[in-house]
Design goal:
Layout (H helix, E strand, L loop, with lengths): L1 H16 L8 H8 L1 E7 L6 E3 L2 E3 L1 H13 L2 E7 L2 H9 L5 E2 L7 H6 L7 E3 L1 E6 L15 E5 L3 H12 L5 E5 L4 H9 L5 E5 H7 L6 E6 L4 E3 L2 E2 L6 H16 L2 H10 L7 H13 L1 H14 L4 H12 L19 H6 L8 H18 L8 H12 L1 H13 L7 H7 L6 H4 L9 H22 L28
Parallel strand pairs: 1-4, 1-5, 8-9, 8-10
Antiparallel strand pairs: 2-3, 5-13, 6-12, 7-10, 7-11
Helix pairs in contact: 10-18, 12-15, 13-20, 15-16, 16-17, 16-20, 17-18
Length: 477
Amino acid sequence: MPTRLAFTALLTLLALAAGCGGPADNLEAIRERGELRFVTRNGPTTYYRERGAPAGFEYDLARRFAQELGVGLTVVPVFSLDGLFSALRRGEADIAGAGLTLTPERASTFPASTPYHEQRPQVIYRTGTRRPRSLEDLEDREVLVLAGSSHGALLARRQADDLPGLKVRSVAGADPLDVLRQLDQGSADAAVVDSVEFAIQRHLLPQLAVAFDLATEQDMVWYLAPDGDNGALQERLAGFFRRLEQGGTLAALREAHFGQVDVLTRAGSQTFIANIRGRLPAYREAIEQVAREHQLDWALLAAIAYQESHWDPEAISPTGVRGMMMLTRATARELGVPDRRDPLQSLRGGARYFKDLRRRLPGDITEPDRTWLALAAYNIGLGHLEDARVLTERAGGDPHHWQDVMAHLPKLEQRAWYTTVRHGYARGREAVRYVQNIRHYQSVLQWRFIAENRPAPPLEVEPLLPEQLRGRALLAL
Ligand code: GLU
C-alpha cells in the first residue's frame, strides 16, 4: 500500500509540475478548495437528517472519503436523478453518489468509480392483482420507472428489441418512494425499483410485493464531474473502496443501514398496524402512566414493549423471560417486580432498567445517541456494547454516535474481531435490529398519535420514514 500511495503522490506531483497546460486535476482542485462537494438524493437509502444530524449510507461513505483526503464535506441534496447529473455537468459537484447503477450510457459521459455495492432491479406489483412473472406478462399493462433511471433505459431496450407492446411511464422529479406510492394508489400495474430501495420502503406500503427480478445484481458506482482530469481521483477512490471492503467497514455499513430492513417484513408491518388497533388500547393508559412516572417518551416505552412482547403481558420465551417487558426472573427480582405478568409492574421494571443503563453510559454521550446506545445495552448488555464502542474507535469511528457504533456491532459475531475484545462473541446484528425496530415503531407511534406533529422542513427525513409519507399512509393507519 505505501508504494501505491507514493506512486499516487508522484503522479500528483508530476501533474502539478506539468503546469497549467493540461486539464485541471480534479483531486488537486478538491484539496486546494479544502472541500469535497458531494451531490446526492435526499432519502432513506442515501442521505437524510436525523434530529438535526446528517446520516445515510452514501453520506457515511462520502464523509469517510472527505476525511481521508483531509478536506471538509459539503453535501448538495437534490430530489431527482437528473438533478444529480446536471450538478456534475455544471461543475457544481465533484462526485455524485445515490445508489446509482453503472450503465454504459452514463459512463460514456461521466467517469465512474469502482463499484462499492450491488442491487437488483425488481418489478413490484400490488398484491391482489395478477402477479406478473416476466416482462412478457406486462405487455399492454403499464410499468412505472423513475425518469432518467437505469431501469427506464433497460425497459426501452427491451421495447426496441422484442417487446414493442410494453408501456413504460417515467415519473419525473420523483424518488423511488413516489414511484412506489403511485403504484400503491393504483395508477399503474407495476413499477421497477432497486432491491434495497424496495426493502427499505416496503413495510410502509404493505400492499406491494416483488413480482420478479428484472436482472441480476448490478454495480453501484459514484460518478464524477466530466470536466477536468479525473485519473488521480479515480485512482484514489479505487483505493478507498478497496480498503473499506478489505477492512470490513463496507460490509458493516451495509448491514447497519440496510440489514435491519429484513426484519420488518410485510407480515411484520401488517401485524404491527393490526396490534396498534387491537392490543395497544388496552395498555395505552398503563404505558402513559409509567412513562410519566419515569419521564420517558410514551411512544418510546410503547415501542420497547412492542419489540419485547408485542404488547402481550402473558408472553413467555423458551429461556424463561416473560411478561410485557420480557424480564428474566433474576432481573425482575433485582428490580423489585414480584409479578412479571402484571403489565404495570413489568413496564415499571423495564423502564427502571432502561433508565439505569442510560445513566451508566459514559457522561459525554449526548441525546439522542444516549437513548439508542442504552437500548442496544438493554438488548446485548453494557459489556458487549462497550466492546463495540472500542471496535468503533479502533476503526476511526466515533464511539459516541449510534450511527457509527451500529456499523461495528455486527463485528462481535466475527471471530477476527470478537477475539480482540474483552467480552467476546455477542449477537451484534440482533442488537442493531433491536434498536432500529424500536426506533421505527416509536416513529410510527409518534406520527400516528401526536396530532401536533407537522411535516418538518424537506431535509428532516426520519430514518425509514421519508417525509412524503407523513400525513398520508401513516396517519391513515
Ligand atoms: N439505481 C437507479 C439508477 O441508477 C436509481 C435507484 C432506483 O430507482 O431504485 O437509475
